[in-house]
Amino acid sequence: MASVFWLTLTGFVAIGFVSLASGSTTAERPVDLVIIYPEVREPFARVFEEIVRGAEEAYQQQVRRVSMADNQSPVDFVHVLDESSPVLVLGNRLARQVTENNAERRLIVGAVNSEYSSVFGITLIPDAKVIAKKLPVLVPDVKTVHIVTNPDNNLLDFDHAKTVLQQQGIVLSIHQAEDVRVAAGVYRDLMPTLGEQDAVWILPKGSFVNNAVLAILLQESWEQHFVVFSSNPIHVKRGALFSIYPNNYKMGLSLGRMAWDIAQGNSPQRQMQALEDVFVTVNERTSNHLGINLSEDIRSHIDLILPAR
Hints:
This protein is of the alpha/beta class. The chain has helices spanning 9-22, 44-58, 75-79, 92-101, 128-138, 158-166, 180-190, 211-224, 234-238, 248-263, 284-289, 296-299, and strands spanning 4-6, 33-38, 63-68, 87-90, 107-112, 120-126, 144-149, 171-176, 198-202, 227-230, 242-246, 272-275, 278-283, 304-306. A 7-stranded parallel sheet has the order 1-3-2-4-5-6-12, sandwiched between helices. A 7-stranded mixed sheet has the order 8-7-9-10-11-13-14, with helices on both faces. Helix 2 links the parallel strand 2 (33-38) and strand 3 (63-68). The two termini are 42 Å apart.
């Protein structure tokens, strides 16, 4: 496992200046990976800890952690780093701040639900390949997946999603809405048309599902026997059939491998990649109500089952 250095912000900045002043080069020493992540409370701190731990394990040289409080900006800090060092930035706030001001850096972003055009990274949106693989196993009767989304949402490659789902005999139907008010009307008009062969996929961003919309959506799902699945595991506790969401440790491994490839001069084929490292959680009470038998074979594809009560 890579060595880890717990450093204060000021201490690490000092080291950065010494490194630059001494004129050290990549050939003279290993290329370190710097991981910048937000300083947050539990349970969110555990999420970032798991991602960082995975990245440390996958990266083959030294790894240095730097946590940032809300009132700290990483921008000036990144400027003093050796330009040969790749920088992994976690979380939307820090990723946005760093990418806007350090376009020349070897930047990788993770744990983000926004698209960045000038850096490498992995988003929190599950790759449609994962959906196409899991959906026929969990609910083989579903033939159409509906998404309500902002037309400006570029996190999901809709053409790619349509293609991979179509290969499984599933149609992706996209319903556009500019804001929460319009989306509520779209959901209201859509729900009466849905049945056992339909599923609604709630994306982590841009689906405009607040608590009120979710409650109505789940109630109609229960009555009309259509499937609701989400990228938010909390929705499963509320009654959604299943959720596909990040396996934080494995996502960290993927980010660490990506950083190592970039450090070696081998850029990934795609800059921003969809999430492939996932967990699957299923609500057994909902599956029973929808008449879905969780056989041993199906259970082998599930990481966590919320028991029927």
